[in-house]
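Quick log. Single chain, no ligands specified.
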Amino acid sequence: MAKIHPLADVQTEQIGDSTFVWQFCVILKDAVIGDNCNINCHVLIENDVKIGDNVTIKPGVQIWDGVTLEDNVFIGPNVTFTNDLVPRSKHYPEAFAKTLVKKGASIGANATIVAGNTIGEYALIGAGSVVTKDVPANTVWFGNPAKQKGIISSEGKITYY
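-> predicted structure:
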């Protein structure tokens, strides 16, 4: 059974066992969240969002429509996802761009993930990076714009270039 802090606004019923949702979170009704996740305080999760099992989402993250986080993903504090490539006030696209963060990937604090990109399995995005294109599996990226700086094993051993 999920544990939901009484100060969280959780509208979905699709939350897996042993998931903890901290205070001051807002989770909309169509979001799907897996088992054994940790959703820290001050997180917003919109409707068209899918979150796998064993995912950690640190404080200050907004996960907009069109974002999928697969199993064992780590999202650091204040990571920013986008979903509209040409945002305009009160003008909405026919469909929001889809962003996929694959199994075991980690995204460091304050990184920005531009909509429509895929972060590959076990990839590592450094803190403060701006991801503007697809990131292959088992690679290390950082900078603005983020560029590949090394490779990383599934166990977390990094080799820099």
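The CA atoms of residues 20 and 37 lie 6 Å apart.
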